[in-house]
Specification:
By secondary structure, this protein is α/β, with parallel strands linked by helices. About 40% of the residues lie in helices and about 15% in strands. The chain has 2 domains: about 130 residues, Rossmann fold, CATH 3.40.50; about 180 residues, Glycogen Phosphorylase B (Rossmann fold), CATH 3.40.50. Strands 2-1-3-4-5-6 form a 6-stranded parallel β-sheet, sandwiched between helices. α12 crosses α13.
């Protein structure tokens, strides 16, 4: 089959939707089909349109329906589809009109699927985003960190280096609450070895100014700007902890990257993360709760049993981000679309 994937701008940065679209296209090709990724709909022959962001791609969906009346539409739900900042009636009507045209709706985690209107639930396919485990480091590099008591190369909290490194990874924008971790480490006790490295482009001048000001005033904080995926991965791998402070998440690519690297996570308690780590995961803090985050960071640094519970919780969640699992789920979806096309069923 021929697939066209539409991931709307911005395309100047490697944003989450584009990362998702490129990975989906790669999987589709691996399964023996054609797939192209565009920023907007192009009038070309295709059997299936996959549109990321139900609201932003509404015009593309409408054009595809007109051009390919026998084609099929798959909507990939994004964070702002599930947790919109615009609650107007117009936005809701656009969202519902688009998903009515869909043959299938992809939710990146189970909470997102449950957020759909009742009449659309039977169209939902939950397909978690996968992450590729990093290539093993040379044996000498692993041994240089000392023989971990559990075979991971770690002695316990803070053993990956002279300090306890905390990574915050993601472009600096309001929904990520990007400076929550920096705020949380301002009043740590002097004996704490916590240091924060923040990775991600500032998406506004005000964000850039604030990051630079934080560096000047906060000796525990450093902002390294945008990095390639491999560079960000190396920073994450060398960290003792990842913090996700988002106010909302449709899904989280960086969470999967942490899981496959055995890096424990402290996160704001939001549905997009709970759907992967589970409601009983011990590493949550309330959205915007600076003191709660500070307490979790200090506990992770100083309490070996707590740190181990974070690591164990992440290990249990790791199968959800398996590349084999994502590929298997995509194969099932594509087989369903093929059957639908071959049977000549009318679009729902």
């Amino acid at each position: 089959m021929r697939f066209q994937l539409v991931a709307p701008p911005p395309a100047s940065l490697s944003n989450g939707n584009r990362v998702t679209a490129l990975r989906w296209a790669r999987i589709i090709r691996q399964l023996g089909h054609e797939a192209v990724v565009q920023h907007e709909y192009r009038r070309r022959k295709a059997d299936v349109l996959i549109a990321l962001h139900a609201v932003k791609t509404a015009p593309a969906v409408a054009d595809f329906v007109a051009d390919h009346p026998e084609g099929r539409i798959v909507i990939g739900l994004t964070g702002t589809d599930i947790y919109p900042t615009d609650h107007s009636g117009k936005r809701q009507r656009t969202f519902e009109d688009t998903i009515r045209k869909a043959t299938a709706i992809i939710a990146l985690q189970s909470h997102a699927a449950r957020s759909l209107p009742a009449w659309a639930q039977d169209k939902a396919w939950v397909i978690y985003q996968s992450a590729e485990p990093p290539k093993p480091r040379p044996r000498a590099a692993v041994n240089s960190q000392g023989p971990g008591s559990d075979g991971t190369g770690m002695q316990g909290p803070g053993s990956r280096g002279p300090s306890f490194q905390v990574a915050v990874i993601g472009h600096l924008r309001a929904v990520k609450d990007p400076f929550r971790t920096a705020m949380a480490i301002r009043r740590l006790p002097p004996e704490s070895q916590i240091r924060v490295v923040q990775v991600g482009a500032a998406l506004s001048e005000s964000m850039q100014v604030r990051a630079r000001r934080e560096e000047e005033r906060n000796a525990r904080y450093g902002w390294v700007g945008a990095k390639s995926k491999s560079e960000a991965g190396r920073i994450l791998s060398s960290s003792d902890l990842l913090v996700i402070s988002s106010r909302s998440e449709g899904s989280s690519n960086v969470l999967g990257e942490a899981l496959v690297r055995n890096v424990p996570v402290i996160s704001s308690r939001i549905g997009g993360i709970e759907a992967t780590l589970g409601p009983d995961y011990p590493g949550y803090f309330d959205v915007g709760d600076t003191s709660g985050l500070r307490e979790q960071l200090l506990r992770a640094e100083t309490d070996r049993a707590f740190y181990r519970s974070l690591r164990d919780g992440c290990r249990r969640a790791r199968p959800l981000v398996s590349p084999a699992r994502e590929r298997r789920d995509w194969k099932r979806l594509i087989q369903s679309l093929q059957r639908d096309l071959e049977s000549g069923l009318r679009r729902r």
